[in-house]
UniProtKB/TrEMBL annotation:
Name this polypeptide is given: PRC-barrel domain-containing protein
Annotated organism of origin: Roseomonas acroporae
TM region positions: none
Gene3D superfamilies the record matches: PRC-barrel domain
Domain PRC-barrel residues, every copy: 3-71
Upper taxonomic lineage: Bacteria, Pseudomonadati, Pseudomonadota, Alphaproteobacteria, Acetobacterales
A Pfam family matched in the record: PRC
InterPro entries on file: PRC-brl_dom, PRC_barrel-like_sf
Highest taxon, organism lineage: Bacteria
Length: 96
């Protein structure tokens, strides 16, 4: 068993872009989103952002995110007591 909290998240290019700080579940206990610590340097300037669970891929190389660093920059910060806006994966170009 592996704990998700604190895990590094890599972007499509394989570089670490964030760390998982929380998992958001629905009333049935199914994961719907993760909250990530994103950006900053040495902890300064970090923001907490939410991404849909389906944007993540889990494999032997760790957790990978289907969003680029540029896409992550545009996600609004998660703030206590406010509605959470989460990023979703880009549409699949092969889908009809």
């Amino acid at each position: 068993m592996v704990s998700l909290l604190g895990q590094d998240v890599k972007g499509p290019n394989g570089q670490v872009v964030a760390q998982i700080t929380n998992v958001v579940v629905d009333l049935a206990g199914q994961p719907r989103a993760v909250v990530l610590n994103y950006g900053g340097f040495l902890g300064v300037g970090r923001r907490r952002i939410a991404v849909a669970w389906r944007t993540l891929r889990f494999g032997p190389g760790g957790v990978t995110l289907a969003l680029t660093r540029e896409q992550l920059r545009s996600i609004p910060e998660v703030k206590e007591g406010e509605a959470m806006t989460m990023a979703v994966p880009p549409p699949d170009p092969a889908a009809p």
